[in-house]
TrEMBL record:
F-box domain span: 77-130
InterPro entries in alphabetical order: F-box_dom, LRR_dom_sf
Domain of life: Eukaryota
Protein name, UniProt field: F-box domain-containing protein
Record-linked Gene3D superfamilies: Ribonuclease Inhibitor
Xref: SUPFAM superfamilies: RNI-like (SSF52047)
Length: 590
Protein backbone atom coordinates (compact mmCIF):
# COMPACT_ATOMS: atom_id res chain seq x y z
CA UNK A 1 0.00 0.00 0.00
CA UNK A 2 1.46 3.34 -1.08
CA UNK A 3 1.42 6.29 1.37
CA UNK A 4 -1.03 9.15 0.62
CA UNK A 5 0.41 12.17 -1.15
CA UNK A 6 0.72 15.54 0.56
CA UNK A 7 -2.21 16.95 -1.46
CA UNK A 8 -4.51 14.15 -0.28
CA UNK A 9 -3.49 14.70 3.34
CA UNK A 10 -4.01 18.46 3.03
CA UNK A 11 -7.47 18.03 1.48
CA UNK A 12 -8.48 15.59 4.20
CA UNK A 13 -7.25 17.98 6.86
CA UNK A 14 -9.27 20.87 5.42
CA UNK A 15 -12.43 18.71 5.27
CA UNK A 16 -12.00 17.56 8.88
CA UNK A 17 -11.54 21.15 10.04
CA UNK A 18 -14.74 22.21 8.22
CA UNK A 19 -16.67 19.40 9.91
CA UNK A 20 -15.22 20.36 13.30
CA UNK A 21 -16.24 24.00 12.85
CA UNK A 22 -19.76 22.97 11.71
CA UNK A 23 -20.22 20.62 14.66
CA UNK A 24 -18.94 23.22 17.11
CA UNK A 25 -21.37 25.81 15.69
CA UNK A 26 -24.23 23.33 16.06
CA UNK A 27 -23.28 22.53 19.64
CA UNK A 28 -22.99 26.22 20.40
CA UNK A 29 -26.48 26.97 19.14
CA UNK A 30 -28.08 23.94 20.84
CA UNK A 31 -26.56 24.47 24.27
CA UNK A 32 -26.23 28.26 24.16
CA UNK A 33 -22.58 28.02 25.16
CA UNK A 34 -22.42 31.80 25.14
CA UNK A 35 -24.73 31.74 28.16
CA UNK A 36 -22.65 29.00 29.75
CA UNK A 37 -18.95 29.89 30.21
CA UNK A 38 -18.05 26.32 31.11
CA UNK A 39 -19.48 24.95 27.84
CA UNK A 40 -17.73 27.70 25.89
CA UNK A 41 -14.35 26.74 27.38
CA UNK A 42 -14.98 23.07 26.59
CA UNK A 43 -15.85 23.94 22.98
CA UNK A 44 -12.54 25.77 22.55
CA UNK A 45 -10.61 22.92 24.16
CA UNK A 46 -12.29 20.32 21.91
CA UNK A 47 -11.51 22.39 18.81
CA UNK A 48 -7.86 22.79 19.80
CA UNK A 49 -7.49 19.06 20.47
CA UNK A 50 -9.09 18.17 17.13
CA UNK A 51 -6.74 20.49 15.27
CA UNK A 52 -3.76 18.98 17.12
CA UNK A 53 -4.97 15.49 16.18
CA UNK A 54 -5.12 16.44 12.49
CA UNK A 55 -1.59 17.87 12.63
CA UNK A 56 -0.28 14.72 14.33
CA UNK A 57 -1.89 12.55 11.65
CA UNK A 58 -0.33 14.67 8.93
CA UNK A 59 3.16 14.40 10.45
CA UNK A 60 2.66 10.66 10.88
CA UNK A 61 1.87 10.26 7.18
CA UNK A 62 5.03 12.16 6.27
CA UNK A 63 7.17 10.00 8.56
CA UNK A 64 5.63 6.82 7.20
CA UNK A 65 6.36 7.95 3.65
CA UNK A 66 10.00 8.70 4.48
CA UNK A 67 10.41 5.41 6.32
CA UNK A 68 9.00 3.46 3.36
CA UNK A 69 11.32 5.32 1.00
CA UNK A 70 14.37 4.47 3.10
CA UNK A 71 13.24 0.88 3.48
CA UNK A 72 12.84 0.52 -0.29
CA UNK A 73 16.38 1.90 -0.77
CA UNK A 74 17.86 -0.46 1.80
CA UNK A 75 15.89 -3.31 0.30
CA UNK A 76 17.61 -2.76 -3.04
CA UNK A 77 21.01 -2.80 -1.30
CA UNK A 78 20.11 -5.96 0.59
CA UNK A 79 19.55 -7.75 -2.69
CA UNK A 80 23.21 -7.27 -3.68
CA UNK A 81 25.45 -10.36 -3.65
CA UNK A 82 26.85 -11.18 -0.21
CA UNK A 83 30.48 -10.90 -1.39
CA UNK A 84 29.85 -7.35 -2.63
CA UNK A 85 28.05 -6.42 0.60
CA UNK A 86 31.04 -7.60 2.64
CA UNK A 87 33.40 -5.44 0.56
CA UNK A 88 31.14 -2.40 0.98
CA UNK A 89 30.92 -2.86 4.75
CA UNK A 90 34.67 -3.40 5.16
CA UNK A 91 35.35 -0.25 3.13
CA UNK A 92 32.93 1.69 5.34
CA UNK A 93 34.72 0.45 8.47
CA UNK A 94 38.24 0.90 7.11
CA UNK A 95 39.03 4.27 8.76
CA UNK A 96 36.99 3.79 11.95
CA UNK A 97 39.15 4.01 15.13
CA UNK A 98 39.43 0.62 16.74
CA UNK A 99 37.63 1.66 19.93
CA UNK A 100 34.66 2.92 17.89
CA UNK A 101 34.73 -0.06 15.57
CA UNK A 102 32.30 -2.45 17.23
CA UNK A 103 29.60 0.17 17.96
CA UNK A 104 29.65 0.94 14.21
CA UNK A 105 29.50 -2.77 13.36
CA UNK A 106 26.55 -3.17 15.72
CA UNK A 107 24.72 -0.26 14.09
CA UNK A 108 25.13 -1.83 10.64
CA UNK A 109 23.93 -5.23 11.84
CA UNK A 110 20.72 -3.75 13.27
CA UNK A 111 19.47 -2.40 9.93
CA UNK A 112 17.87 -5.64 8.81
CA UNK A 113 18.02 -9.40 9.28
CA UNK A 114 20.12 -9.90 6.15
CA UNK A 115 22.80 -7.47 7.32
CA UNK A 116 22.75 -9.04 10.78
CA UNK A 117 23.39 -12.45 9.27
CA UNK A 118 26.22 -11.21 7.04
CA UNK A 119 28.07 -9.43 9.84
CA UNK A 120 27.71 -12.15 12.47
CA UNK A 121 28.79 -14.90 10.10
CA UNK A 122 31.79 -13.13 8.51
CA UNK A 123 35.04 -13.53 10.45
CA UNK A 124 36.64 -10.37 9.00
CA UNK A 125 34.21 -8.18 10.95
CA UNK A 126 35.55 -9.66 14.20
CA UNK A 127 39.27 -9.09 13.75
CA UNK A 128 39.92 -5.92 15.79
CA UNK A 129 41.31 -6.20 19.33
CA UNK A 130 42.21 -3.45 21.80
CA UNK A 131 43.83 -3.85 25.21
CA UNK A 132 41.03 -1.78 26.72
CA UNK A 133 38.47 -4.47 25.90
CA UNK A 134 37.56 -6.82 28.72
CA UNK A 135 39.20 -10.26 28.59
CA UNK A 136 35.85 -12.03 27.99
CA UNK A 137 35.24 -9.67 25.07
CA UNK A 138 38.72 -10.42 23.66
CA UNK A 139 38.03 -14.15 23.93
CA UNK A 140 34.73 -13.71 22.12
CA UNK A 141 36.43 -11.72 19.33
CA UNK A 142 39.18 -14.31 18.86
CA UNK A 143 36.54 -17.05 18.63
CA UNK A 144 34.35 -15.22 16.10
CA UNK A 145 37.29 -14.05 13.96
CA UNK A 146 38.42 -17.66 13.41
CA UNK A 147 41.45 -17.44 11.03
CA UNK A 148 40.94 -13.85 9.84
CA UNK A 149 43.98 -11.47 9.97
CA UNK A 150 43.95 -9.52 13.25
CA UNK A 151 44.42 -5.82 13.99
CA UNK A 152 45.74 -5.37 17.54
CA UNK A 153 46.30 -2.20 19.55
CA UNK A 154 48.00 -2.26 22.95
CA UNK A 155 47.08 1.09 24.48
CA UNK A 156 47.18 2.49 27.99
CA UNK A 157 46.76 -0.09 30.75
CA UNK A 158 47.27 0.81 34.41
CA UNK A 159 48.32 -2.57 35.82
CA UNK A 160 50.93 -4.95 34.51
CA UNK A 161 48.84 -7.98 35.51
CA UNK A 162 45.94 -7.06 33.23
CA UNK A 163 48.32 -6.16 30.40
CA UNK A 164 50.17 -9.48 30.66
CA UNK A 165 46.89 -11.40 30.72
CA UNK A 166 45.85 -9.58 27.54
CA UNK A 167 49.13 -10.49 25.80
CA UNK A 168 48.94 -14.12 26.97
CA UNK A 169 45.46 -14.43 25.47
CA UNK A 170 46.76 -13.20 22.09
CA UNK A 171 50.00 -15.22 21.88
CA UNK A 172 48.32 -18.34 20.36
CA UNK A 173 46.98 -16.10 17.57
CA UNK A 174 50.22 -14.12 17.00
CA UNK A 175 50.84 -15.71 13.60
CA UNK A 176 47.68 -14.14 12.19
CA UNK A 177 48.26 -10.59 13.50
CA UNK A 178 48.36 -8.30 10.46
CA UNK A 179 48.63 -4.93 12.25
CA UNK A 180 50.22 -4.41 15.68
CA UNK A 181 50.47 -1.10 17.55
CA UNK A 182 52.07 -1.00 21.01
CA UNK A 183 51.84 2.28 22.92
CA UNK A 184 54.58 3.55 25.23
CA UNK A 185 51.89 3.60 27.96
CA UNK A 186 51.19 -0.12 27.67
CA UNK A 187 52.25 -1.72 30.96
CA UNK A 188 53.50 -4.94 29.35
CA UNK A 189 55.30 -3.64 26.26
CA UNK A 190 58.23 -6.01 26.85
CA UNK A 191 55.88 -9.04 26.81
CA UNK A 192 54.20 -7.68 23.66
CA UNK A 193 57.38 -8.53 21.72
CA UNK A 194 55.95 -12.05 21.50
CA UNK A 195 53.11 -10.71 19.33
CA UNK A 196 55.45 -9.74 16.47
CA UNK A 197 54.60 -12.35 13.84
CA UNK A 198 55.61 -13.20 10.27
CA UNK A 199 52.42 -11.90 8.63
CA UNK A 200 52.69 -8.34 9.91
CA UNK A 201 51.89 -5.63 7.39
CA UNK A 202 51.96 -2.77 9.89
CA UNK A 203 54.12 -2.55 13.02
CA UNK A 204 54.11 0.41 15.41
CA UNK A 205 56.07 -0.27 18.58
CA UNK A 206 56.87 2.43 21.12
CA UNK A 207 58.60 2.06 24.49
CA UNK A 208 60.04 4.42 27.09
CA UNK A 209 63.31 2.53 27.62
CA UNK A 210 65.61 4.54 25.36
CA UNK A 211 68.77 3.45 27.22
CA UNK A 212 68.08 -0.26 26.64
CA UNK A 213 65.76 -0.66 23.65
CA UNK A 214 64.22 -4.10 23.09
CA UNK A 215 64.94 -6.11 19.98
CA UNK A 216 61.92 -7.19 17.94
CA UNK A 217 61.36 -9.88 15.39
CA UNK A 218 64.06 -12.39 16.31
CA UNK A 219 63.23 -15.79 14.89
CA UNK A 220 60.07 -14.73 13.01
CA UNK A 221 61.54 -14.71 9.51
CA UNK A 222 62.08 -11.94 6.95
CA UNK A 223 58.92 -9.87 7.66
CA UNK A 224 58.62 -9.46 3.90
CA UNK A 225 54.94 -8.47 4.15
CA UNK A 226 55.71 -5.42 6.27
CA UNK A 227 54.61 -2.14 4.62
CA UNK A 228 54.49 0.31 7.55
CA UNK A 229 57.18 0.35 10.24
CA UNK A 230 57.24 2.79 13.18
CA UNK A 231 59.67 2.19 16.05
CA UNK A 232 60.41 4.29 19.13
CA UNK A 233 63.17 3.15 21.51
CA UNK A 234 63.08 -0.30 19.92
CA UNK A 235 64.91 -1.92 17.04
CA UNK A 236 64.95 -4.83 14.65
CA UNK A 237 67.92 -7.11 13.99
CA UNK A 238 68.84 -5.05 10.93
CA UNK A 239 71.47 -7.48 9.67
CA UNK A 240 69.21 -10.55 9.68
CA UNK A 241 65.84 -9.10 8.67
CA UNK A 242 65.27 -8.07 5.08
CA UNK A 243 62.79 -5.22 4.72
CA UNK A 244 61.38 -4.70 1.24
CA UNK A 245 58.49 -2.72 -0.18
CA UNK A 246 58.01 -0.37 2.78
CA UNK A 247 55.65 2.58 2.35
CA UNK A 248 56.34 4.08 5.79
CA UNK A 249 59.62 4.04 7.74
CA UNK A 250 59.61 6.06 10.98
CA UNK A 251 62.32 5.61 13.61
CA UNK A 252 62.35 7.62 16.86
CA UNK A 253 64.86 7.79 19.72
CA UNK A 254 67.02 4.83 18.79
CA UNK A 255 70.25 6.16 20.25
CA UNK A 256 71.88 2.73 20.14
CA UNK A 257 71.34 -0.29 17.92
CA UNK A 258 70.37 1.88 14.97
CA UNK A 259 70.94 0.61 11.42
CA UNK A 260 74.23 0.97 9.62
CA UNK A 261 74.30 3.37 6.71
CA UNK A 262 74.55 0.46 4.28
CA UNK A 263 71.54 -1.25 5.90
CA UNK A 264 69.51 1.95 5.66
CA UNK A 265 70.44 2.33 1.97
CA UNK A 266 69.37 -1.27 1.37
CA UNK A 267 65.96 -0.73 3.01
CA UNK A 268 65.35 2.48 1.03
CA UNK A 269 66.55 1.00 -2.26
CA UNK A 270 64.23 -2.01 -1.81
CA UNK A 271 61.26 0.30 -1.09
CA UNK A 272 60.63 2.33 -4.27
CA UNK A 273 57.06 3.13 -3.14
CA UNK A 274 58.22 4.72 0.14
CA UNK A 275 55.93 7.65 1.06
CA UNK A 276 57.07 8.59 4.58
CA UNK A 277 60.69 8.63 5.80
CA UNK A 278 61.19 9.95 9.35
CA UNK A 279 64.45 9.56 11.30
CA UNK A 280 64.30 11.35 14.66
CA UNK A 281 67.15 11.02 17.21
CA UNK A 282 68.51 7.89 15.51
CA UNK A 283 72.12 6.73 15.63
CA UNK A 284 73.17 5.67 12.15
CA UNK A 285 76.66 4.20 12.13
CA UNK A 286 78.74 4.75 8.98
CA UNK A 287 80.07 1.17 8.86
CA UNK A 288 82.19 0.27 5.87
CA UNK A 289 82.05 2.97 3.22
CA UNK A 290 80.60 1.76 -0.06
CA UNK A 291 79.71 3.58 -3.24
CA UNK A 292 75.98 4.20 -3.40
CA UNK A 293 74.08 5.15 -6.53
CA UNK A 294 71.37 7.78 -6.23
CA UNK A 295 68.00 6.35 -5.17
CA UNK A 296 64.89 7.96 -6.65
CA UNK A 297 61.74 7.79 -4.52
CA UNK A 298 58.91 8.93 -6.83
CA UNK A 299 56.20 8.61 -4.14
CA UNK A 300 58.00 10.16 -1.14
CA UNK A 301 55.79 12.86 0.40
CA UNK A 302 57.37 13.29 3.85
CA UNK A 303 61.08 13.58 4.66
CA UNK A 304 62.01 14.33 8.29
CA UNK A 305 65.67 14.14 9.33
CA UNK A 306 65.62 15.41 12.91
CA UNK A 307 68.46 15.66 15.41
CA UNK A 308 70.91 13.77 13.27
CA UNK A 309 74.51 14.75 12.69
CA UNK A 310 75.15 17.06 9.78
CA UNK A 311 77.30 14.45 8.03
CA UNK A 312 74.51 11.86 8.31
CA UNK A 313 71.89 14.27 6.99
CA UNK A 314 74.06 15.30 4.09
CA UNK A 315 74.84 11.70 3.15
CA UNK A 316 71.10 10.88 3.11
CA UNK A 317 70.26 13.97 1.06
CA UNK A 318 73.02 13.14 -1.41
CA UNK A 319 71.79 9.56 -1.75
CA UNK A 320 68.08 10.11 -2.48
CA UNK A 321 65.94 12.13 -4.87
CA UNK A 322 62.34 12.96 -3.95
CA UNK A 323 60.69 14.69 -6.92
CA UNK A 324 57.26 15.17 -5.28
CA UNK A 325 58.14 15.58 -1.58
CA UNK A 326 55.96 18.20 0.13
CA UNK A 327 56.82 17.95 3.83
CA UNK A 328 60.52 18.45 4.64
CA UNK A 329 62.06 18.89 8.10
CA UNK A 330 65.84 19.01 8.54
CA UNK A 331 67.33 19.54 12.02
CA UNK A 332 71.10 19.24 12.37
CA UNK A 333 72.87 18.57 15.64
CA UNK A 334 76.06 20.48 16.41
CA UNK A 335 79.05 18.92 14.71
CA UNK A 336 82.48 20.51 15.38
CA UNK A 337 83.92 18.56 12.47
CA UNK A 338 81.60 20.31 9.99
CA UNK A 339 81.12 23.90 11.15
CA UNK A 340 79.61 25.08 7.86
CA UNK A 341 76.02 23.88 7.36
CA UNK A 342 75.45 25.59 4.04
CA UNK A 343 76.26 22.39 2.04
CA UNK A 344 73.18 20.79 3.62
CA UNK A 345 71.00 23.45 2.02
CA UNK A 346 72.63 22.88 -1.34
CA UNK A 347 72.09 19.12 -1.00
CA UNK A 348 68.45 19.75 -0.09
CA UNK A 349 67.99 21.66 -3.34
CA UNK A 350 69.21 18.57 -5.20
CA UNK A 351 67.13 16.10 -3.18
CA UNK A 352 63.89 17.99 -3.79
CA UNK A 353 64.41 19.46 -7.26
CA UNK A 354 60.86 20.81 -7.50
CA UNK A 355 61.21 22.83 -4.29
CA UNK A 356 61.26 26.13 -6.16
CA UNK A 357 58.14 25.34 -8.19
CA UNK A 358 56.22 24.11 -5.12
CA UNK A 359 56.93 27.23 -3.07
CA UNK A 360 56.28 29.63 -5.93
CA UNK A 361 52.99 27.94 -6.81
CA UNK A 362 51.58 28.15 -3.28
CA UNK A 363 48.33 29.90 -2.43
CA UNK A 364 50.02 31.76 0.43
CA UNK A 365 53.66 31.63 1.44
CA UNK A 366 54.55 31.77 5.15
CA UNK A 367 58.09 32.26 6.45
CA UNK A 368 59.04 32.08 10.13
CA UNK A 369 62.60 32.64 11.32
CA UNK A 370 64.49 32.99 14.60
CA UNK A 371 68.10 32.48 15.64
CA UNK A 372 68.05 28.67 15.21
CA UNK A 373 64.95 27.69 13.32
CA UNK A 374 63.84 28.57 9.83
CA UNK A 375 60.52 27.41 8.50
CA UNK A 376 58.73 28.03 5.24
CA UNK A 377 55.37 26.60 4.22
CA UNK A 378 52.55 27.28 1.83
CA UNK A 379 48.81 27.27 2.28
CA UNK A 380 47.17 25.94 -0.83
CA UNK A 381 43.52 25.61 -1.72
CA UNK A 382 43.98 22.25 -3.42
CA UNK A 383 45.82 20.64 -0.50
CA UNK A 384 44.56 19.36 2.81
CA UNK A 385 46.48 20.68 5.82
CA UNK A 386 48.38 17.43 6.07
CA UNK A 387 49.63 17.78 2.49
CA UNK A 388 50.49 21.48 2.50
CA UNK A 389 54.04 21.98 1.19
CA UNK A 390 56.45 22.94 3.97
CA UNK A 391 60.19 23.18 4.65
CA UNK A 392 61.61 23.39 8.15
CA UNK A 393 65.31 23.80 8.82
CA UNK A 394 67.05 24.01 12.19
CA UNK A 395 70.82 24.32 12.22
CA UNK A 396 72.67 25.73 15.22
CA UNK A 397 75.76 26.24 13.10
CA UNK A 398 74.15 28.20 10.31
CA UNK A 399 72.57 31.59 10.71
CA UNK A 400 68.90 31.90 9.72
CA UNK A 401 69.99 34.78 7.54
CA UNK A 402 71.92 32.38 5.31
CA UNK A 403 68.95 30.02 5.25
CA UNK A 404 66.64 32.91 4.37
CA UNK A 405 69.05 34.07 1.70
CA UNK A 406 69.17 30.54 0.25
CA UNK A 407 65.38 30.40 0.13
CA UNK A 408 64.97 33.85 -1.39
CA UNK A 409 67.27 32.85 -4.23
CA UNK A 410 64.75 30.08 -5.02
CA UNK A 411 61.61 32.21 -4.83
CA UNK A 412 60.09 33.82 -7.89
CA UNK A 413 56.51 34.18 -6.62
CA UNK A 414 53.78 35.59 -8.88
CA UNK A 415 52.63 39.13 -8.18
CA UNK A 416 49.14 38.13 -7.06
CA UNK A 417 50.19 35.76 -4.26
CA UNK A 418 50.02 36.62 -0.56
CA UNK A 419 53.12 36.10 1.56
CA UNK A 420 53.61 36.39 5.33
CA UNK A 421 56.99 36.87 7.01
CA UNK A 422 57.19 36.29 10.78
CA UNK A 423 60.43 37.12 12.61
CA UNK A 424 60.97 35.33 15.92
CA UNK A 425 61.87 36.87 19.30
CA UNK A 426 65.64 36.53 18.85
CA UNK A 427 65.88 37.35 15.16
CA UNK A 428 68.42 40.15 14.67
CA UNK A 429 66.98 42.47 12.06
CA UNK A 430 70.22 44.47 12.03
CA UNK A 431 72.09 41.58 10.38
CA UNK A 432 73.58 43.03 7.14
CA UNK A 433 72.37 40.12 4.99
CA UNK A 434 68.81 40.60 6.25
CA UNK A 435 68.98 44.35 5.62
CA UNK A 436 69.98 43.57 2.05
CA UNK A 437 67.06 41.13 1.74
CA UNK A 438 64.62 43.80 2.94
CA UNK A 439 65.84 46.20 0.27
CA UNK A 440 66.02 43.86 -2.70
CA UNK A 441 64.63 40.33 -2.14
CA UNK A 442 61.49 40.57 0.01
CA UNK A 443 59.49 42.46 -2.59
CA UNK A 444 56.76 39.78 -2.54
CA UNK A 445 55.94 40.08 1.22
CA UNK A 446 52.40 41.32 1.89
CA UNK A 447 52.24 40.78 5.69
CA UNK A 448 55.05 41.35 8.20
CA UNK A 449 54.75 40.10 11.81
CA UNK A 450 57.48 41.12 14.25
CA UNK A 451 57.85 39.30 17.57
CA UNK A 452 61.52 40.13 18.10
CA UNK A 453 62.74 41.18 21.55
CA UNK A 454 65.21 43.53 19.90
CA UNK A 455 64.34 47.04 18.76
CA UNK A 456 62.79 47.37 15.31
CA UNK A 457 63.69 51.00 14.65
CA UNK A 458 66.38 50.01 12.07
CA UNK A 459 63.80 48.05 10.07
CA UNK A 460 61.24 50.87 10.28
CA UNK A 461 63.84 53.32 9.02
CA UNK A 462 64.59 50.99 6.11
CA UNK A 463 60.93 50.81 5.16
CA UNK A 464 60.82 54.60 5.10
CA UNK A 465 63.70 55.03 2.65
CA UNK A 466 63.80 54.40 -1.06
CA UNK A 467 66.70 52.43 -2.48
CA UNK A 468 68.25 52.69 -5.91
CA UNK A 469 69.30 49.67 -7.90
CA UNK A 470 70.53 49.81 -11.47
CA UNK A 471 69.60 53.48 -11.51
CA UNK A 472 65.93 52.86 -10.57
CA UNK A 473 64.56 54.04 -7.20
CA UNK A 474 62.16 51.69 -5.41
CA UNK A 475 60.61 51.04 -1.99
CA UNK A 476 61.51 48.06 0.21
CA UNK A 477 58.66 45.52 0.45
CA UNK A 478 56.46 47.49 -1.96
CA UNK A 479 53.50 45.08 -1.57
CA UNK A 480 53.41 45.31 2.25
CA UNK A 481 49.79 45.89 3.29
CA UNK A 482 49.79 44.49 6.87
CA UNK A 483 52.35 45.46 9.51
CA UNK A 484 52.05 43.85 12.95
CA UNK A 485 54.53 45.36 15.42
CA UNK A 486 53.04 43.45 18.37
CA UNK A 487 54.92 44.17 21.59
CA UNK A 488 58.25 44.94 19.92
CA UNK A 489 60.13 48.03 21.02
CA UNK A 490 60.17 51.05 18.73
CA UNK A 491 60.11 54.80 19.14
CA UNK A 492 57.00 56.77 18.24
CA UNK A 493 58.89 59.44 16.24
CA UNK A 494 60.58 56.74 14.12
CA UNK A 495 57.24 55.12 13.26
CA UNK A 496 55.67 58.48 12.38
CA UNK A 497 58.63 59.46 10.21
CA UNK A 498 58.48 56.14 8.33
CA UNK A 499 54.74 56.44 7.70
CA UNK A 500 55.12 60.03 6.51
CA UNK A 501 57.86 59.14 4.08
CA UNK A 502 56.18 56.00 2.78
CA UNK A 503 52.46 56.84 2.77
CA UNK A 504 51.98 60.61 2.92
CA UNK A 505 49.57 61.75 0.25
CA UNK A 506 47.91 58.35 -0.06
CA UNK A 507 44.25 57.62 0.67
CA UNK A 508 43.23 58.95 4.07
CA UNK A 509 46.22 61.26 4.49
CA UNK A 510 46.66 64.90 3.54
CA UNK A 511 46.82 65.04 -0.22
CA UNK A 512 49.43 66.94 -2.07
CA UNK A 513 51.95 67.06 0.78
CA UNK A 514 55.17 65.12 1.07
CA UNK A 515 54.50 62.76 -1.81
CA UNK A 516 58.21 62.35 -2.43
CA UNK A 517 59.87 61.08 -5.59
CA UNK A 518 57.70 59.13 -7.97
CA UNK A 519 58.94 55.57 -8.48
CA UNK A 520 57.97 52.65 -10.65
CA UNK A 521 57.66 50.54 -7.52
CA UNK A 522 55.33 52.57 -5.32
CA UNK A 523 54.25 50.87 -2.07
CA UNK A 524 50.68 49.65 -1.84
CA UNK A 525 48.31 51.15 0.70
CA UNK A 526 48.73 49.95 4.30
CA UNK A 527 45.40 48.50 5.40
CA UNK A 528 46.38 47.23 8.87
CA UNK A 529 48.88 48.44 11.49
CA UNK A 530 48.86 46.57 14.83
CA UNK A 531 50.61 47.95 17.92
CA UNK A 532 50.27 46.36 21.38
CA UNK A 533 50.96 47.85 24.82
CA UNK A 534 53.19 50.82 23.95
CA UNK A 535 53.04 53.64 26.46
CA UNK A 536 55.13 55.80 24.16
CA UNK A 537 52.33 55.83 21.59
CA UNK A 538 50.35 58.62 23.22
CA UNK A 539 47.24 60.22 21.77
CA UNK A 540 49.26 62.73 19.77
CA UNK A 541 50.99 59.94 17.87
CA UNK A 542 47.73 58.09 17.36
CA UNK A 543 46.13 61.15 15.84
CA UNK A 544 49.10 61.62 13.56
CA UNK A 545 49.00 57.99 12.41
CA UNK A 546 45.30 58.33 11.63
CA UNK A 547 46.00 61.54 9.73
CA UNK A 548 48.58 59.74 7.58
CA UNK A 549 46.88 56.36 7.04
CA UNK A 550 43.25 57.26 7.50
CA UNK A 551 40.75 56.07 10.15
CA UNK A 552 40.45 52.43 11.11
CA UNK A 553 43.87 51.29 9.89
CA UNK A 554 45.73 51.28 13.22
CA UNK A 555 44.77 48.79 15.93
CA UNK A 556 46.37 49.85 19.22
CA UNK A 557 45.86 47.81 22.39
CA UNK A 558 47.39 49.79 25.27
CA UNK A 559 46.55 47.17 27.94
CA UNK A 560 47.88 44.24 25.94
CA UNK A 561 44.53 42.46 26.25
CA UNK A 562 43.83 39.30 24.32
CA UNK A 563 47.39 39.23 23.06
CA UNK A 564 49.54 36.15 23.35
CA UNK A 565 53.21 37.01 23.42
CA UNK A 566 54.06 33.41 22.61
CA UNK A 567 51.92 33.44 19.47
CA UNK A 568 53.73 32.10 16.46
CA UNK A 569 52.82 30.88 13.03
CA UNK A 570 55.24 28.05 13.64
CA UNK A 571 52.82 25.35 14.73
CA UNK A 572 54.04 22.38 16.71
CA UNK A 573 54.68 19.34 14.58
CA UNK A 574 53.12 16.07 15.69
CA UNK A 575 55.31 13.21 14.63
CA UNK A 576 52.76 10.56 15.56
CA UNK A 577 49.07 10.30 16.38
CA UNK A 578 48.12 10.08 20.04
CA UNK A 579 46.11 6.94 20.90
CA UNK A 580 42.37 7.38 21.05
CA UNK A 581 40.76 6.76 24.44
CA UNK A 582 37.04 6.20 24.08
CA UNK A 583 34.41 4.29 25.97
CA UNK A 584 35.30 0.85 27.27
CA UNK A 585 33.98 -2.13 25.38
CA UNK A 586 33.06 -4.48 28.20
CA UNK A 587 31.40 -7.19 26.18
CA UNK A 588 30.68 -8.25 22.65
CA UNK A 589 27.00 -8.40 21.80
CA UNK A 590 25.39 -11.50 20.35
Amino acid sequence: MRPPSDSVVDAATALILQEIHAENSSLSSDFHSADNPNLSALDREITALDITLVAVHKRLHHRLAEARKRRNTLGAISRLPTELMIKIFLKELEEVPIKKYYPRVKALSQVCAAWYSIIHNTANFWAHVHSDFSLPAVGRILYKSRNAPLTVECGYLLTGTAAKAFVDMLIPSAKRIRSLAVSRDFAAWSEAIKLVGPKLERLEYRTTNASKPPSLGRGVGPLDRLRELTLESAYLPWSSISLKGLKTLKLFHITSEGPLTSQLWSIIAESPSLRHLVLNHVSISPGSQTETSTITLPSLRQLHLIHLSQSTIQSILNAIRAPVCLDTNVTCDSDPATPDSLPVLLSLSQTIPHIQAVLNEGYQLCINANSRLFRCWTERERYDDADAPSIEIEMPQISPYKALDWLLDLLKPPRDRRSTLTLGPDFNISEPSFADAVNYKLHFVTSLYLTTDLGVDPLLKQLGRQVTRYGTPSWPMPRLSTLNLGTTYFSGPTLIDTLKRRYKGKKGGKKGKGKGTKTANKPVELISLVVVGHQSMDEEYQDEVEEILGPGVMDWDMDDEDFDEDYSYDDDIDYWDEPYYGDHLYSIWD
